[in-house]
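Purpose: get a first structural picture of the assembly so the mutagenesis plan has something to point at.
Setup: two entries, given in the order below. No constraints added.
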Amino acid sequence: MAWFLRKTKNIAESQQREMPDGLWTKCPQCSAVLYRKELEEHAYTCSSCSQHFRIGSTKYASLLFDAGTWQETDRHIRSADPLDFVDTRPYKARLKEAYAKSDLPDAVTTGTGSIEGIPVSFGCMNFGFVGGSMGSVVGEKFVRAGRRALEQRMPFIFISASGGARMQEAALSLMQMAKTSAFLSELAEAGLPYISILTDPTTGGVSASYAMLGDVIIAEPKALIGFAGPRVIEQTIRKKLPEGFQRSEFLLEHGFVDMVVHRSDLKATLARVLRHLGGSVHA
Amino acid sequence: MASNVTLEFERPIIDLESKIREMRALVDQLDIEPQISELERQVDDLRADIYRNLTRWQRVQIARHPDRPYTLDYLTQSFDDFVELHGDRAFRDDPAIVAGLARIGGRSVVVVGHQKGRDTKTNLHRNFGMPNPEGYRKAYRMFQLAEKFSLPVVCLLDTPGAFPGLEAEERGQAEAIAKNLLEMSRLRVPIIVVIIGEGASGGALGIGVGDRILMLENAWYSVIAPESCSSILWRSWEYKEQAAEALKLTATDLIQHGVIDRIIPEPVGGAHRDPNTMFDTLRSVICEELDELSNIRVDKLVTRRREKFYAMGVWNE
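Result (structure tokens, whole complex):
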């Protein structure tokens, strides 16, 4: 069939991938050409328009933790394929490709480190791994990292970046919402701080569970945050969504996040909050 | 309640049944009683055969059958003395979730359930059973009420999903669901969850954390509806049957993966074919489950509930 007769439209690639590792990068927002070193100095944000590039757990760990304190945990936990899921391609093949394409352990990396001398248990999602989708591995590593916080009386910090639950694990990925939230109810009883950081994007099952349950919720500027994706909403209401809808600033205005913080200030902000909340943790 | 909707795979049964009815009308004039009995035997066999071998997509269709009993039907038939309570005390009352106090097997319980409509008018009122945040917040209020008065909670799940609307996002759909997940994980009273029809995604789970997760034989429960799954993974709405197969969304699938604890049998042909039997079954199952849960000390109950969800998931290490 000729391309101009094609009836079904492919879903447009509107999602920006994680940062490429070139020497020069063009800002997708303002088209400024940025030198890598300059990008690093600005915590992977655009120095002219402050666009926050998508970065993964490795870069976040290097931005947040005091030198030499970061230690990754549970890297050996890998996704299985309990349902033998096949859509246009088998889930196993998708996983294999995702592991080959990146050096990531799954859609989440966990570990421990110190932020201005305060030891924390930490997790960070990797949008570059199957869209940061939450499957059994994300749920299990979330709980293990949280459990580490609980046992060692540390604050728990978690950075979300996810399109939602991983469809290929179906009901099991849905249950990760319950699993992680159940754990947070236990952590809350222990009186330990849980800080949730929302980055672009935080939607679906992740937003409707641990992402929205922080004692303090911090969002990066202009991140897409919501339960339903904008496309689904537009299809439902048959209207274009207003500019800035479901962005961090919109959520701040509507009372669903505590603050919108520039990535360059993230570490200092976390440290300030933790010093207030963590009094009993490390007096 | 009958809408005369016939699902495609039910057609041979319906045809035979109408033939039997026609013959019955002639039974006074002709001696055809033996033939009628034979046909009745055939229709029973056929029904048993068809319903034993349903595909997953066919079950999804039964779960959505417009004559299928909804939450309010169970509330009036399986429960007694239902007192409906309204509102989230913050914004408004969401008719897509009904809630209140009811009695079952001699004890009072708090019931929360999704509610669909039966026709266009009631469906618009109920928003097709798709809650807004205030629905989840009404449920939250009910959980607190239950804990305060030491009443067990029964949740009936039946939704095509939480409403993906502009205002729903504005008022914090994600936060409303998340908060319920946490609250239900720590609530110090027994919680029984029953998936009675459609259990779609976070919209269902938002009132679906509990000590015992029960599921009607023809209900479905998954992270996404088969049509939406098809549109995302196959980039077309045409693959819903394959999507339903891939998602393994039936009760028999889910009990194998530890997502649910018990399957509640439906009358042959589905709950809508014999609602009264269904109402009786649900009543006796809930009473039985409540009796067992009420023997467990509350600390142990909450620990057990959390551990049940901690165990969910499959991974390699």
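The first strand of chain A starts at residue 24 and ends at 26.
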